[in-house]
Amino acid sequence: DLVGELNTGDYNNSSVSVTDLEVELHRAQEAVDRMTRDLETRAEELKRRGETIMDLTGKLSVKEVELSGTKEELELARADLKDAGGLAKDEMVQKAFEVRDGAVARKNATLLQLAHTRIELMQANSQLMEAIQQKVELSQQLDQWQMDMQALLDEQMRRKLANPEPEIPSSGQSTPASAERKRPSRRLFGLFQR
């Protein structure tokens, strides 16, 4: 298990390679990027629904004012009915009730729409909080992997410094023995220059 081996902190005996860790880091970074885009989408959705709630709240206030006005009109109509009689009275009563019922129905429809939108907003907010938590956890894991990778690289560098590879002289380079052989000739050449 890659994460298990890294979490032990024993980089000397770990079978995890830098390449394996780079692959995991790349996958984790892609997941973080996808989650970031998802969070941005969810945030936009929350903003849109919040604006819808504000709009519906404003409409509800208008409906309440409208309903209050129709109730006042109904009371005035009832007062006028005292002086009316017969068919005219019945028609006025019927019309007043229709106006009132229409206002009540519009208010109730707005209330229902507002309630649905609020429920959707709560659900979207819950989903956003869950997505944020997932991103935080994934980001923490990504940070840990990056630290593990750096520790692994440091360990490999320490090993190279502790056990340097012997240099193989090339054909154009002089070995210590050949250098020793050349030194007298250089000294001799120096004598001729004096």
Automatic annotation (TrEMBL):
Residues 18-49, 114-155 form a coiled coil. It comes from the Eukaryota. Residues 157-194 are annotated as: Disordered. The keyword Electron transport does not apply. The keyword Acetylation does not apply. Keywords: Coiled coil. This is Bicaudal D-related protein 1. The lineage of its organism: Eukaryota, Metazoa, Ecdysozoa, Arthropoda, Hexapoda.
